[in-house]
Write a structure and sequence with these properties.
The structure holds two protein chains of two kinds. Chain A is α/β, with parallel strands linked by helices. Chain A has helices spanning about 15-30, 60-70, 90-100, 115-120, 135-150, 170-180, 215, 230-235, 240-245, 250-255, 275-280, 285-305, 315-330, and strands at about 45-50, 75-80, 105-110, 125-130, 160, 185-190, 205-210, 220-225, 260-265. In chain A, the strands form two sheets. A five-stranded parallel beta sheet of chain A has the order 7-6-5-8-9. Chain A has a four-stranded parallel beta sheet with strand order 2-1-3-4, sandwiched between helices. The model of chain A is unreliable at about 310-330 (pLDDT under 50). Chain B has a single domain, classed as Rossmann fold (3-Layer(aba) Sandwich), CATH 3.40.50.2020. In chain B, α3 links the parallel β3 (about 90-100) and β4 (about 120-130). In chain B, α1 (about 5-20) crosses α2 (about 35-50). The chains are: A alpha/beta, B alpha/beta. The interface between A and B is medium-sized, with 26 and 24 residues.
Chain lengths: ~325, ~170
């Protein structure tokens, strides 16, 4: 493999080895989260531009914390305050940001493909922090890291995703990543959000759509919740009460899953809608680990893209060694 | 150096460390990735023979603390550090294979001080080849070798290289 990770736009085109490389490189940064001093000088003098054309709290702060802990500075552009509101085109805005000479651009946009489009016009690394309903690669990686830490493996698991899958870039990134490690997917939610076409989005990965939550949870190793966008719920034909009745993850339903099953949620959670507080705060929930791992994964992403490190640089002996350890942990 | 010479040198270094530290109390070794790690483990094993005590051994990858990130992209792949003990008030001995410019040790000290405040940090190397660019010296030295800039000290260890020797070779351009 000779891939140099110039950008991180999507997980779909990456191989299992490349994805595993990102996960392995996140480990040292997980350790650093436990240090009394969390600040490194590794990217001192480098600047990361954060351009969030769609609002975000968690992801933006997570990337900003990752940059800052690596010693890099950040430039912040937020949609509400941006000149896009004044009629500037996306490319002009990005070119202006780039003219301030950042070393990397982290971008979120409401339109699928916007990040790819911008990356084609820039010579600095671009990280997709979520584009429309397409992908959210750093979320996929941090979810996989969380699963690997809790279950010891990301191979051959039964993964159930609940909620508005049609509009979810998180679901797509997770399917593209975990699918390459032999995971099987069960998608569940109201039919308008779980159309049968989703079964074909990742050729080679077994995906089935199920409309009863009890069936969907049977034997699941990993349960991924998605945020129910309450603004979409107000549309007929589904009321919030109906959603709770039919699709809420509560302790009783969770018992149908495998006894060691874990519950993930990318946040922000609507407690009492898609998930009960009992489950959200229970021992099977990983929601806060996901947030902690998010910083580590994003540190790894920024570090790898800005330093230009590649998996081919791994010394053959150590590569063999890391394979062994990968086998041991997987 | 041959395999028996390396072994004898490490035995001597273990004795020197225990002697100069006045025993093994609060003592810990930190091997610098990569070849400092097996060396530290072997010294700890030798110390077990001397004092019957298990001296803790940590692993430190200094990649994130380098001062030349932009120039060494090919070496930028990270290994895991693993320092399973608190460093506060400890008597730490950094272990590496070759002491050259001193920049690796500078980086290692930055890494250690992110973990706490040790009582003392000293340095143990298998080979000191001179050409320092930093005010850094080793307290425990296996062998001093006069070298020129165009030469490389190649340390090969069983655990990593499946062979055991230290040789002086000409840099291949």
């Amino acid at each position: 493999m000779s891939t140099k990770f110039r950008d991180l736009l999507a997980l779909e085109p990456l191989t299992a080895d490349e994805l595993g490389f990102f996960l392995d490189q996140s480990k040292p940064f997980q350790e650093i989260q436990k240090h009394p001093l969390k600040k490194l000088a590794t990217l001192r003098g480098k600047t990361v531009a954060l351009a969030f054309f769609e609002t975000s709290t968690r992801t933006r702060i997570s990337f900003a914390a990752a940059a800052s802990r690596l010693g890099a500075d950040t430039m912040n552009l937020q949609a509400e305050a941006s000149s896009l509101k004044k009629g500037e085109t996306l490319l002009d805005t990005v070119f202006n940001l780039n003219a301030m000479k950042p070393d990397c651009l982290v971008m979120r946009h409401a339109a699928s493909g916007a990040t790819d489009y911008v990356a084609r016009h820039l010579d600095i690394p671009v990280v997709n922090a979520g584009d429309g309903t397409h992908e959210h690669p750093s979320q996929g990686l941090l979810d996989a890291l969380t699963i690997r830490d809790r279950l010891g493996t990301i191979k051959n698991l039964n993964v159930t995703i609940l909620g508005d899958i049609l509009h979810s870039r998180v679901a797509r990134s997770n399917i593209h990543l975990l699918g390459k490690f032999g995971c099987k997917f069960t998608l569940c939610g109201p039919a308008m959000w779980v159309p049968r076409e989703l079964e074909k989005i990742a050729p080679g990965t077994p995906i089935r759509c199920v409309y009863r939550i009890e069936d969907a949870l049977e034997g699941a190793d990993v349960i991924m919740m998605l945020r129910v966008q309450t603004e979409r719920l107000n549309d007929p034909p589904l009321s919030a009460d109906d959603y709770i009745l039919l699709y809420q993850l509560n302790a009783e339903r969770l018992r149908r899953a495998s006894p060691n099953a874990i519950v993930l949620h990318p946040g922000p959670m609507n407690r009492g809608i898609e998930i009960t507080p009992e489950v959200a705060d229970g021992p099977q929930s990983c929601v806060l680990e996901q947030v902690t791992n998010g910083v580590a994964v994003r540190m790894a992403i920024l570090y790898l893209l800005i330093s230009g490190a590649t998996e081919t640089d791994t010394h053959p002996v150590l590569q063999a060694k890391s394979k062994e350890s990968a086998n041991a942990s997987d | 150096m041959s395999a028996p010479e390396i072994d004898r040198t490490l035995q001597r270094l273990a004795h020197e460390i225990v002697e100069k530290s006045g025993g093994t109390k609060d003592l810990a070794l930190i091997g610098i990735v990569r070849r400092g790690v097996p060396l530290a483990q072997r010294i700890a094993q030798a110390m077990r023979g001397i004092d019957g005590v298990n001296v803790p051994v940590g692993v430190l990858d200094i990649t994130l603390y380098r001062d030349d990130l932009s120039k060494v992209a090919p070496q930028a792949v990270l290994r895991s550090s693993d320092i399973p003990f608190g460093v506060d008030n400890m008597d730490l001995v950094l272990v590496d294979d070759v002491l050259y410019t001193g920049r690796t040790i500078r980086a290692a000290m930055n890494g250690i001080f992110d973990l706490g405040r040790p009582k003392r940090v000293s340095l143990c190397v298998l080979v000191d080849r001179g050409h320092r660019e930093m005010p850094i010296e080793a307290r425990y030295i296996g062998r001093k070798v006069q070298t020129s800039d165009t030469e490389i000290i190649e340390v090969r260890l069983q655990e990593i290289d499946k062979e055991e020797r230290v040789v002086l070779v000409d840099r291949v351009e």
